[in-house]
Amino acid sequence: MERIIIKTPDSISAIMVGARWEAVTRLLPESGVVIITDKNVFNLYGKSFPDFPVIKIEPGEESKKLRVIETLAAKLLKLGIDRSGFILAVGGGVVCDVAGFLASVYLRGIRCGYVSTTLLSQVDASTGGKNGVNLDRIKNVIGNFKQPEFVICDTTMLRTLSDEEYLSGMAELIKTGIIGDASIIEILEKNYAKVILRDRKLLSELVARSVKFKASVVAKDEKESGLRRILNFGHTFGHAIELHEAFKHGYAVASGMELATLFSYNKGLIDRKVCNRVINLMKKYNLLNSYNISSDTIGELILHDKKKSGDNIHFVFIEGIGTPEIRKVPAGELIGFYKKFKKE
After folding, report:
1. Which segment of 93-97, 250-254, 290-294, 339-343 scores lowest on mean pLDDT?
2. What is the mean pLDDT of the chain?
3. Which of 87, 201, 278, 316 is the most exposed place for a label (fewest CB within 10 A)?
4. Residues 6+ apart with CB under 8 A from 327
């Protein structure tokens, strides 16, 4: 088990990679705990949950709504949870997002911790303190920052994921390698069979590398005013694709990373060898699905992006594996590149 600490001006968060999830009982208060999970996770692990009240939400993005937060808050009140209460999330990115958001606003803030059950959540969503819910079709437009006290990343839990869910998380792992820890890319290139077979030891190493890099970024820029924007590599186009095509998050981000990589090549920031290396790795893990979105539609969706500043977007390019570059790019230039890419 590896313990990684994220220190911010207001909090300390411990990420435990390789720990068994059942050990969470030692981290919880004796009383005042409520567990939030989804129905799928409860069916798999609910019999082994600590002996506290459990609230189940529906799996998937439809639970990332303010009305769900309101319903959950009412249930906490009914259970008598006061400001000394503690929310334990057991689930993937949606569950952790919802629970973290709820913990940040209920009675102006109570404590929380996570047991992260998906690869996507372990390498990205549960680490860093971002919490968000969707507004209509726009992802995470209502949100805040609240660090969980702890996150347990038990890679044995990844064995219960569908292939689609597992590979969706692989995209965010690849993203971390592209923008930060280049050794992740090398490991994924050389250990395809072990990765596909979900080798626990290898996955624990990969998750730990990803969390360490993200922790180093979050510690320097918790509120995403500068450096943390590099974590959005692939997300400008990716979120638009996710909204329009209803892809799982990782697959949409993979398509966004393909576009961001080609845009970097188009601008002369990387050579063809680097460009091909990135795209071929995503093809190797079967992450690039076809999609059909017009440039007009992608433009409308990009203009709702949280990274927009006036008519510009804080866009993440790469200058090499492990070397991201943030530039303000006019939205029209992004749309023009996309139009060229789609050969409209």
Report:
1. 339-343
2. 93
3. 201
4. 314, 315, 317
Common-topology check for domains 2-161 and 166-342: no
Q: For residue 296, with 0-12 CB atoms within 10 Å meaning exposed, 13-18 middle and 19 or more buried, which class applies?
A: exposed
Reported CATH class of domain 2-161 = alpha beta
Distance CA 97, CA 249 (A): 14
Amino acid identity, position 238: G
Considering the chain, what percentage of its residues have pLDDT values greater than 90? Answer: 81
DSSP code for 153: E
Query: Does the pLDDT of residue 76 top 90, yes or no?
Result: yes
38-67 per-position pLDDT tens digit: 999 999 999 999 999 999 999 998 999 999
Domain 166-342 has CATH 1.20.1090.10: yes
Strand partners, 317: 325
Distances (CA, A) of 298 to 134, 245, 252, 339: 18, 11, 13, 10
Domain ranges of the chain: 2-161, 166-342
CA 7, 9, 15: angle at the middle one, nearest 5? 20
CA atoms within 13 A on the CB side of 274: 24
Contact (Cβ atoms closer than 8 angstroms) between residue 88 and residue 94: no
Rounded distance, CA 98 to CA 57, Å? 9
State how far the Cα of 157 lies from the Cα of 20, in Å rounded to an integer.
9
Decide if 154 contacts 119 (C-beta within 8 A): no
The SS3 call for residue 110 is coil
pLDDT of the residue at 220:
87
10 Å CB burial of residue 290 (0-12, 13-18, 19+) is exposed
What are the distances in angstroms from CA 112 to CA 26, 56, 97, 119? 14, 16, 11, 20
Give per-residue burial for 60-86: e unless 16+ CB within 10 Å, then b: ebebbbeebbeebeeebeeeebeeebb
